[in-house]
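seq:
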Amino acid sequence: MKERIEAFLADLDRTLAARAAEARLDLYHIGRSALVWEYDYIATTRDFDFLRPQGGAEWVELALQLFGKNSPKAKEHGLYLEVVEEGFPPMPLGYKKRATQVDGPWKILRIYRLDPHDLVASKLRRFSPKDRADIRLLCDLVALDPERLEQVLEEAYPFNLEKDGDEFRDSAFRSLRAVQHYLRHEINEI
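struct:
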């Protein structure tokens, strides 16, 4: 799967470079494909999720047109490009500063690996069974700090407090509590 992602990105970069050699497209990698590619997670994924960058809208739209869901390139690679809005999931303030640029042979693409705390925080709102499995993997692979994770989640909801009754925030914090219990070895499953 990791090799498929690398081939997909190489083709995306070549295709965009053929259109404009001076373009740049920053991709902040998110979702299960980030775990597969960056942490050698043994799982399958159908998409390469990235957060919508500020600026470069024409390149994002071109990339999605050429490599998005149901495109010929997506069918060729068995993988499609999908943009995720920063507001869903809400991303913690400063996530871009904490992200690390991935070294690669690309001319157009600049791919960034999210800090693992930010990646976990991005999965806490939905907290589906797949999200829980992904979070558990990160908890088992990376030294996550339960208090730092709470701080990062607070940064994702800077204008909402517990007293405000925001159901999305409240749900994300309930999910966080389960993850913190797991990190502290108080429970065996998330």
